[in-house]
Design goal:
This protein is mostly helical. It has 2 domains: about 1-55, no CATH class; about 55-119. The protein has helices spanning about 5-20, 25-55, 55-60, 65-80, 85, 90-119. Helix 4 (about 65-80) packs antiparallel against helix 6. The longest helix is centred in the first third of the chain and has 30 residues, at about 25-55.
């Protein structure tokens, strides 16, 4: 095992011990989780905005119907991921989550096929 791997494992173990042993460690862990989630969301938005700027011409060349399907699939995906915690509280909610993500993924696949057929 390299020294970098050992160092990284030690950092993870130290953080786990802090969360476990320090009073109020659960709130600290929740804060870190929220900060990491916010950073992740910001990074996704930056990547998607870059992709939009790069492929704007191709997106508008899809036509109104397929462009609407693309935007709807992305919107459904975002809302579904945002509501994941609530949806996974019940079994029907988990099934709805899977159905929404599967439908959005299939719609994105169809839009991609349409794009590839004219590119």
């Amino acid at each position: 095992m390299s020294t970098e791997v050992a160092r990284n494992v030690a950092i993870v173990v130290a953080l786990a011990l802090v969360v476990w042993l320090v009073p109020g460690g659960g709130e600290g862990a929740a804060l870190v989780e929220q900060i990491l989630s916010a950073i992740f969301i910001v990074m996704i938005v930056l990547i998607l905005s870059r992709l939009y700027r790069q492929f704007r011409g191709e997106i508008f060349a899809l036509g109104d119907t397929w462009r609407f399907a693309l935007y709807a699939a992305v919107g459904v995906s975002v809302v579904t991921v945002a509501a994941s915690r609530r949806l996974f509280e019940t079994a029907p909610g988990a099934l709805i989550w899977v159905a929404l993500i599967a439908g959005a993924s299939y719609t994105l696949y169809l839009v991609w096929q349409r794009y590839r057929s004219y590119a």
